[in-house]
Write a structure and sequence with these properties.
Layout: H1 3-41, H2 48-77, H3 83-95, H4 106-144
Helix pairs in contact: 1-2, 1-4, 2-3, 3-4
Length: 153
Protein backbone atom coordinates (compact mmCIF):
# COMPACT_ATOMS: atom_id res chain seq x y z
CA UNK A 1 0.00 0.00 0.00
CA UNK A 2 1.42 3.36 -1.00
CA UNK A 3 2.11 6.14 1.49
CA UNK A 4 -0.55 8.40 -0.08
CA UNK A 5 -3.14 5.65 0.24
CA UNK A 6 -2.18 5.08 3.88
CA UNK A 7 -2.63 8.76 4.61
CA UNK A 8 -6.02 8.73 2.86
CA UNK A 9 -7.04 5.69 4.89
CA UNK A 10 -5.86 7.40 8.07
CA UNK A 11 -7.98 10.46 7.24
CA UNK A 12 -11.05 8.27 6.80
CA UNK A 13 -10.34 6.54 10.11
CA UNK A 14 -9.88 9.90 11.89
CA UNK A 15 -13.20 11.10 10.47
CA UNK A 16 -14.82 7.89 11.68
CA UNK A 17 -13.40 8.44 15.17
CA UNK A 18 -14.62 12.03 15.20
CA UNK A 19 -18.15 11.04 14.17
CA UNK A 20 -18.11 8.27 16.75
CA UNK A 21 -17.16 10.76 19.48
CA UNK A 22 -19.89 13.21 18.44
CA UNK A 23 -22.42 10.38 18.37
CA UNK A 24 -21.39 9.46 21.90
CA UNK A 25 -21.86 13.05 23.05
CA UNK A 26 -25.29 13.11 21.41
CA UNK A 27 -26.32 9.84 23.04
CA UNK A 28 -25.26 11.14 26.45
CA UNK A 29 -27.14 14.37 25.83
CA UNK A 30 -30.17 12.37 24.73
CA UNK A 31 -30.16 10.42 27.99
CA UNK A 32 -30.05 13.65 30.00
CA UNK A 33 -32.80 15.26 27.96
CA UNK A 34 -34.99 12.16 28.18
CA UNK A 35 -34.69 12.05 31.97
CA UNK A 36 -35.48 15.77 32.12
CA UNK A 37 -38.59 15.27 29.98
CA UNK A 38 -39.72 12.48 32.32
CA UNK A 39 -39.27 14.80 35.29
CA UNK A 40 -41.29 17.47 33.51
CA UNK A 41 -44.14 15.07 32.81
CA UNK A 42 -44.58 14.40 36.53
CA UNK A 43 -44.91 18.09 37.45
CA UNK A 44 -48.09 20.14 37.43
CA UNK A 45 -47.69 23.16 35.07
CA UNK A 46 -48.85 25.52 37.85
CA UNK A 47 -46.45 24.32 40.57
CA UNK A 48 -44.09 27.29 40.95
CA UNK A 49 -41.79 25.62 43.49
CA UNK A 50 -41.09 22.70 41.15
CA UNK A 51 -40.76 25.15 38.26
CA UNK A 52 -37.90 26.92 40.06
CA UNK A 53 -36.14 23.61 40.71
CA UNK A 54 -36.58 22.53 37.11
CA UNK A 55 -35.26 25.87 35.87
CA UNK A 56 -31.98 25.14 37.63
CA UNK A 57 -31.78 21.78 35.86
CA UNK A 58 -32.77 23.45 32.60
CA UNK A 59 -29.81 25.83 32.89
CA UNK A 60 -27.61 22.76 33.17
CA UNK A 61 -29.24 21.39 30.01
CA UNK A 62 -28.44 24.69 28.28
CA UNK A 63 -24.79 24.29 29.29
CA UNK A 64 -24.78 20.74 27.90
CA UNK A 65 -26.08 22.05 24.58
CA UNK A 66 -23.28 24.62 24.46
CA UNK A 67 -20.82 21.81 25.13
CA UNK A 68 -22.30 19.91 22.19
CA UNK A 69 -21.62 22.95 20.01
CA UNK A 70 -17.94 22.56 20.89
CA UNK A 71 -18.10 18.88 19.91
CA UNK A 72 -19.68 19.91 16.62
CA UNK A 73 -16.64 22.06 15.79
CA UNK A 74 -14.62 18.84 15.66
CA UNK A 75 -16.79 17.77 12.74
CA UNK A 76 -16.11 21.04 10.97
CA UNK A 77 -12.37 20.67 11.55
CA UNK A 78 -12.48 17.29 9.80
CA UNK A 79 -14.60 18.66 6.91
CA UNK A 80 -17.59 16.52 7.83
CA UNK A 81 -20.65 18.42 6.74
CA UNK A 82 -24.00 16.96 7.69
CA UNK A 83 -26.74 19.49 7.08
CA UNK A 84 -29.09 18.39 9.86
CA UNK A 85 -26.34 18.58 12.49
CA UNK A 86 -25.19 21.95 11.19
CA UNK A 87 -28.73 23.38 11.24
CA UNK A 88 -29.44 22.04 14.72
CA UNK A 89 -26.20 23.48 16.06
CA UNK A 90 -26.96 26.89 14.59
CA UNK A 91 -30.44 26.83 16.17
CA UNK A 92 -29.29 25.97 19.69
CA UNK A 93 -28.99 29.64 20.67
CA UNK A 94 -32.53 30.30 19.46
CA UNK A 95 -33.90 27.55 21.69
CA UNK A 96 -32.68 29.18 24.88
CA UNK A 97 -33.80 32.75 24.24
CA UNK A 98 -33.96 33.73 27.91
CA UNK A 99 -30.33 32.90 28.51
CA UNK A 100 -28.85 31.42 31.65
CA UNK A 101 -30.74 33.55 34.19
CA UNK A 102 -34.18 33.59 32.58
CA UNK A 103 -37.09 31.75 34.13
CA UNK A 104 -38.83 29.30 31.82
CA UNK A 105 -42.32 27.98 32.36
CA UNK A 106 -42.85 24.25 32.53
CA UNK A 107 -44.63 24.35 29.16
CA UNK A 108 -41.66 26.17 27.56
CA UNK A 109 -39.18 23.73 29.07
CA UNK A 110 -41.29 20.82 27.86
CA UNK A 111 -41.48 22.17 24.29
CA UNK A 112 -37.75 22.86 24.10
CA UNK A 113 -36.64 19.59 25.67
CA UNK A 114 -39.00 17.46 23.57
CA UNK A 115 -37.76 19.23 20.43
CA UNK A 116 -34.16 18.55 21.46
CA UNK A 117 -34.96 14.92 22.22
CA UNK A 118 -36.60 14.35 18.84
CA UNK A 119 -33.91 16.19 16.92
CA UNK A 120 -31.16 14.19 18.58
CA UNK A 121 -32.78 11.02 17.25
CA UNK A 122 -32.67 12.48 13.73
CA UNK A 123 -29.07 13.61 14.16
CA UNK A 124 -27.99 10.20 15.42
CA UNK A 125 -29.58 8.54 12.40
CA UNK A 126 -27.87 10.96 10.00
CA UNK A 127 -24.50 10.48 11.69
CA UNK A 128 -24.93 6.71 11.66
CA UNK A 129 -25.72 6.80 7.95
CA UNK A 130 -22.64 8.93 7.26
CA UNK A 131 -20.50 6.56 9.34
CA UNK A 132 -21.73 3.52 7.39
CA UNK A 133 -20.89 5.25 4.11
CA UNK A 134 -17.42 6.10 5.40
CA UNK A 135 -16.94 2.55 6.66
CA UNK A 136 -17.85 1.25 3.20
CA UNK A 137 -15.12 3.42 1.63
CA UNK A 138 -12.54 2.20 4.16
CA UNK A 139 -13.64 -1.37 3.55
CA UNK A 140 -13.29 -0.98 -0.23
CA UNK A 141 -9.78 0.48 0.10
CA UNK A 142 -8.68 -2.31 2.43
CA UNK A 143 -10.25 -5.00 0.27
CA UNK A 144 -8.61 -3.61 -2.86
CA UNK A 145 -5.17 -3.67 -1.25
CA UNK A 146 -5.24 -7.06 0.42
CA UNK A 147 -6.35 -6.01 3.89
CA UNK A 148 -9.76 -7.60 3.77
CA UNK A 149 -11.27 -8.49 7.12
CA UNK A 150 -14.13 -10.98 7.09
CA UNK A 151 -15.87 -9.60 10.16
CA UNK A 152 -16.07 -5.98 8.93
CA UNK A 153 -19.25 -4.70 7.41
Amino acid sequence: MSEALRKELQIYEEKNACVFQVMGALKLLNIKVKSFVKRLEKVDPHDEKKQMELNKAFVYLNQEMKHFKKEYHMLKEHDILISSVETFTKNIDMLFTKGMEGEYTIVEMRKISVYIYRMIEVLLNDLQKWKHENDAIVHQIQMKHGKYYFNRS
